[in-house]
Amino acid sequence: MSEVPAPPQTGIEEVDAALTEVAELAGRPVSEHAEVFESAHAVLRATLDGRPPADAPSTPA
How far from 13 is each of 8, 29, 47, CA to CA, in Å? Predict the structure, then answer.
């Protein structure tokens, strides 16, 4: 099996983590793929919308 190249780094920690999880799907069961894609989509959407990811700690106002 060929080695999967590392995803490019964006400098945005949450986005980089999501891209890494997607890149690592080759070694995971297909039954787990949808969950990883849905999680990555949520992180990317939140980042584009300027919102913190759902699992990010809230900061007091």
Answer: 12, 25, 10
Count of positions (residues) in the chain: 61
Indicate the SS3 state at residue 53. coil
- Residue 23 neighbours by CB under 8 Å, 6+ apart: 4, 5, 6, 7
Query: What number of CA atoms fall less than 13 Å from residue 35's CA on the CB side?
Result: 5
Angstrom distance (rounded) from CA 45 to CA 53: 9
Q: Amino acid identity, residue 54?
A: A
Distance CA 4, CA 11 (A): 20
Tell me what pLDDT residue 44 has: 94
H or E element at residue 41? helix 33-49
pTM reported for the whole predicted model: 0.70
